[in-house]
Amino acid sequence: MKDVHLLREALPYLRRHRRRTMVIKIGGEIASSEEALDSLAQDISLLTHVNIRIVLVHGGGPQATTLSQKLGLQPRMVQGRRVTDEDTLAVAKMVFAGQINVDILSRLRRHGVRAVGLSGVDGDILQATRRPPTEMTDAKTGEVELVDFGHVGDVTAADTSLLSLLVENGYVPVVSSLAADDEGNALNVNADTVASVLARDLNASKLVMLTNVVGVLTDPKDPSTLVSRATVSEARAMIANGTVSGGMVPKLMMLIEALEDGVGEVVILSGVEKSALLLELFTDRGVGTLITQDGSA
Q: Which structural domains are found in the chain, ordered by start?
């Protein structure tokens, strides 16, 4: 009887999400875990079989760091952002558009999902410009440093016509976070940014950020302090008063911008907790942090 209740609880959500487009971003930590990746592939298989259109975006920072070190390269990070010189760019190409993309495609295929591996360079999906030297302020010392991030790009535009063609014909595009400028120079771009830009351009009903944390926590060390739902104004307030800090701040700001640019809803949840995606999408309680426009919470 419990299973029947769960099916009935899911029914209105199945109706709501049917034929809608969702953009799901997964971090490198999830892609590096066979168990987490296999579970995610099963969840995506279910979503596609109930006629939900999925675009998957992935990063791969941990894997890029591991390969760099194996090759004798020392990765340089400035406030969590990777400096991408020529050698690091070569590693990013191998890892993002190669190893991780193929690993995800293989898992999806195992569970009956027709998937296509792409990067932002394919079909001019992403247009970007090389980031100019940027002043970075150390949060602890207050010292300001002018940093040249090398072959790091800032997305300037997107053309999602290829992605739309694929999802309309039953495919799941798997997009790695690489782009190119007008001269064809490859650039390393932030995967969160890629997911946000694509969600806006696709007019997605939902943008899902799968991370290695359960969502937005008022106390990062205590999972019980999960904020299950917030409006844009409430999210801004949490940033302003310091309730959230560190890497969650730029992630929240990006999600807020996506909402203001037309994305229906945004969610942050764990990508390592089994079936968290399904519980978030198809149950009343959810399991992550849902952020909505003001007036809709």
A: 2-292 (3.40.1160.10)
